[in-house]
Fold these 3 entries.
Entry 1:
Amino acid sequence: MTDVPASTARGSTLETPAEASTGLIRTLVGIQLYTVAAYLAAAVVPYLWAPRPYPPTWTFIVPGWLLGVPGFYLTLLGPVPGILLAVAGVGVLVATRRRCPATLYRWCVTSTALAAAYGLFACTPLASTIAAFVAD
């Protein structure tokens, strides 16, 4: 029987609080970026494309299910998802500003800014016009 140092045995099976918070931050960043991409793909791009003939339907199958369907519901919800994600991002930034790696911190700042921009844009009359276009 060999003796294993306690620090090695503990470190290999348990996550440290910094590793756990890093995973949560990455998840939040992913959700924020996906929300903004889904809104752009389901609402803004079709609204800007509207005066032109649409491409063939088969080109919309994968993007439609991955981005279009969730983006449709995000558009109908208005600014609520963007504002909630921006507030959550600011909370994470304030809580983990010293423990978070620099690159992940920059990603969190960028995704929080995009979510806030989406939330503020969704409050404008143009966003209401786009939502009515999407709902129609």
Entry 2:
Amino acid sequence: MENPVAFGHGKFLTHYDDVVFFQFNNSESFYNLDLKTAKKIIDIVVTLCNGKPMSFIIDIRGFRGSFSAEAANFLANSSELLKLRISEAFITNSIATNLLIASYKRIYDPVTPHVICDEVRSAEQYCLQSKNTFYGSD
């Protein structure tokens, strides 16, 4: 793991040089991720990817709250992320978060391949498989 960047309630880093790893922690159930924060997240991801398409692992087991429709739409349709995002693996530990992610993907980003996992290992395996499919290797 390299290039760790902390921002707000999150930590971002490249993981095994193939995956961007996001870890969000927030215990405030009223927290709402807004457009300004979404733009900063994209800036961080673009820097970490350094022009190379990667899979994303988003660990939100320690996150409570939601996101604005404006932020969700921006994250899903950002031209910068569309060029860099191969797939997404979400790590969750609650049914409510699973439903939030499923709704987000259905409404805002039905195109990007994704999976919802309950552990890091299965998220890593999914990302490796996605990367291999994207680059056409085994």
Entry 3:
Amino acid sequence: MMKKITDERLKLKNLENIRVLFLVQTIGIIGILGFDLVTKGMDSMTDNPVWYVLILTGVVSAYLSMSISVDHESSKNSPKKGLIISIVVSTFIAIGFGVLVTFTGDLGAGILVGGIVFVCFLASYLYVYYLRTKRQN
């Protein structure tokens, strides 16, 4: 049975090792996907299951980083005010994407893309709002 690490220096070294391993793994995945892109094209690259692993890893990493960022914030601004500003900004961004897609495609595609962009922004903003309110309580 392994003993739990209690020395802070060893914990820090272990975290640094994990960070290096994550970097090597990500570079390897990007290399594999880049090779697929060059040899077989974009469709083959996005059909590769490694593509989904890269996207999922990026999303999980971003959400984990959000919790650290919220804990690092020093401002005492209202979480509700930040949420409202974020929703307004994401609405304009989503409308912009929708309009750009409408110019190249049809109205339905523009509405769909704008809606997806808005929901993606909204999910991350609601998570940050949840973390900020939890930190205040």
